[in-house]
Amino acid sequence: MEGSVIHRSRARSATGAVLAVAMLALLTVAVRPAAATVAAPQAKAQVTNPLPIVFVHGYLGSGAQYRSPAMRFDSNGYPANRIRAFDYSSDASGLDAFIDSVRTEFGVSQVRVAAHSLGTLVMLGYLLNPFQSAKVEKYVALDGTSAFCIWGTQCTAITAAQLGQTHIEASLSPESFALQYQFFTGQAPATTTITPQAGQVQIAGRALNFQVNTPATGTTGELWAIDQATGQRTTGGPQATFSIGSNGNFGPLPVTSGQSYEIALTRSGVGLMHYYFQPFTHSTHLLRLQVPEAGSAQVTNTNVGPDHAAAVVLRYREWWRAGSHGARLDNLDIGTTGPAGTQAPVNVLSRVTADVAGVHVHDNTASPRVSSLDPLTYFSSQAFQTGVDVYMPGSNPATGTITFSNDPRGDASKRQVINTPNWASLVGTTRHAMLVEFNDYVA
Question: Is residue 314 part of a domain?
């Protein structure tokens, strides 16, 4: 809230502040949420030079949250390169400059904006300035502060209650996408699925400091092809190498559709981070590799050692737990096999009660070499996250396999599986951590 107030005060010019307040009561119209149904879909066709879409994420979020909607837009002929994400932390004062850079890049006077949660407060402050509002043709508020139409911008709102979904899910689900697409283009999408692409696809994004979303400058990266069944690297060297510069960007990197990959990042003072995804089947430029900072709470509260692994399991849609979801609860099973030891799969969500997006798992010092499933105190107190005591036998070299599997919304017929090596979380003085990211959609 503090960041949005600061931004709001900066957004108003000294001469326009009084006018904005006076006219707000006369001109502001709270728009009703968009209807939960859309018109009949149209045949897929390339959308010619549409206005760019800028996504403004919510609290502790990032542009990665809009990765699946961006691929859905692209599957309907809305070019992926015209969908951008503004990454920020508490200070969103750079939004105007970001929008100006997008306008300049595409030679347009206006953009379209989708904002989620805290991002809707950021946008309210932004739109209160008539000079800034003139740069936004259409704006959709995703489960946050209701959309307010002022200074000529067309606005609407989509809420979780309207869709019968949870907070983050309402920003990226197929149902939310359909409403966003129709609002922006005036017609229903031909499909709400992500169309698989054969052959070579491109992946790109940014490496960012965890949660604060500043560029992880000075980090170096490698792209490895891996065996989907074991997580082990299949070649003697990386397929590509790259360095993270002052803007945090990496890629595009060519990958084979349907092949599994590891992205490994090395950072002084932190160690090695190993990132695993489900196989890429569609080009994307909104990957976000969250990198911990040396001495940060994420680092100091993660127990590491030479005989066990540590990981964060992420999905940009809440893991549904007990509550109003009936029997449609997610399960996240983790098991380990290999010479260093075997752990039978355990459902790490069995004692988690809140709907969360990120799950930190490692061996707790209170119960070494045992998966007690007790909460990890620090991580369980963080917004949208939790932590669970899970023992994953690790080794150096990592010759075993850790299997992460999920039945999305309790549907075993749509099981998602990611296999990784059993990296020991401490090798000498070097830390190894994994981030395992499941798709928020089911192909």
Answer: yes
